[in-house]
Amino acid sequence: MSETATTRTNHATAADRRLFVAFELGEKEWKLACTTSFGALARPGTLRARDTRRLLDWLAKARERTGAQRIVSCYEAGRDGFWLHRFLQAHGIENRVVDSASVEVNRRARRKKTDRLDARKLLTMLLREALGEKDVWSVVHVPSVADEDARSLQREYRTLVKERTRSANRIRGLLANHGLAPERVDARLRAWLERARLWDGSPLPPGARQRVLRELERWEFTHGQVLAIEKERRERTKTGCEPGLEKVRRLYGLRGIGLGAAWTYGLELFSWRAFRNGKQVGACVGLAPTPFQSGDSERELGISRAGNRWVRGLAIEIAWGWLRHQPDSVLSRWYRERFARGGPRARKVGIVALARKLLVALWRYAETGALPEGAVLKP
Q1: Cα-flanking dihedrals φ and ψ of residue 308, to 5°?
Q2: For the chain, which residues make up each domain, given as ranges?
Q3: Is there a contact between 61 and 39 (Cβ–Cβ < 8 Å)?
């Protein structure tokens, strides 16, 4: 950027005097950096994490010292979530939550990295955005408190299913260590352990048996929570009045879309994000293409794999199920004509393309009720 443009912007900011603040959020401490323009000294600060009273005092003193009329801040999305964004906005501070993966880094093999340097880097990028530079970073679309809370049930369900699977795998591993392989892991495993015998006809050693039983108790506890959430999810789908549940019911009515997929799509993806076109839908879950062009070299690197990886994995699963449950749809016929006769690699590439097309079609169906062409509803 030219010196004239920088000087002109600094004069413009002197008229309304904005104070730019960047946060680097840690578990115990927060590092801050603030300035009013390019060329001005970036003043650092350190606060105890989540000490909002001290934060407001620090910002008030910085504002009084610089004579700023308003404050513009930013921080990287992470463990602290969006509560700080809502807190800052409630106190009249214009804030941005930034996608961490979009922050520029030095590509040297060994680069300096400290919280203070990260805060200064964020501050520099915030100033560049204020100067009018586009595509500096990716700003996270912050959901409302109600929309964020609506995602909790499905996310908890996903976590509990993973924990239940881990417990079952540990039980199978412990028994396989003694040459035993149960048909299934459930409450009937206790009776099976009484009858199980090792290769020499002896029962399972008492230490290993107690360990398996304790692990089975954890599996049963987690399984009970999974069943409770499934019941609550069905009841809320039938009688719930939340805005996002209407899209859940609409998606669940399609053949090939289960209740878990309808909840994930309806409340995690479609309910609160204001998508304007299908490209934004595909990019949100990382199904957008990634071209690579340099000089005479030009090739396609595949999908970007950015965004919500849970929804991306689910989109691939639904695409395979769509071919089975919606064989007469236009998308299924398109896949069979282009990829069904190819090898395994071609079918994998095709299913990703189908997943993206299907995701966009489901988004349009959830928003407008336009049924995917050739698709049928559940009886």
Answers
A1: -80, 105
A2: 3-142, 148-240, 246-368
A3: no
Q: What b-and-e string marks burial along 160-185, b requiring 16 or more CB atoms within 10 Å of the CB?
A: bbebbeebbebbbebbeebebebeeb
74 neighbors 97 (Cβ within 8 angstroms): yes
Q: What's the rounded Cα separation, in Å, for the pair 210 and 23?
A: 50
Q: pTM score, two decimals?
A: 0.85
Spatial contact of 145 and 90, defined as CB atoms under 8 Å apart: no
pLDDT tens column, 177-228 = 999 999 999 999 999 999 999 999 999 999 999 999 999 999 999 999 999 9
Sign of CA dihedral 280, 286, 288, 292: positive
Domain 3-142 architecture: 2-Layer Sandwich (3.30)
Identity (one letter) of the amino acid at 266?
A: G
Render pLDDT for 296-309 as a digit per residue (tens, 0 to 9).
Answer: 888 888 888 888 88
- Residue entry with tokens 């000089």: 295
Dist CA 239 CA 259 (whole Å): 14
Q: Are 299 and 292 in contact (CB under 8 A)?
A: yes
- Is residue 290 a contact partner of residue 302, using CB atoms and an 8 Å limit? yes
What is the SS3 string spanning 8-40?
Answer: HHHHHHHHHCEEEEEEEECCCEEEEEEECCCCC
> How far apart are the C-alpha atoms of 328 and 374, rounded to whole Å?
6
Q: What is the C-alpha to C-alpha distance for residues 34 and 18, in angstroms, rounded to an integer?
A: 10
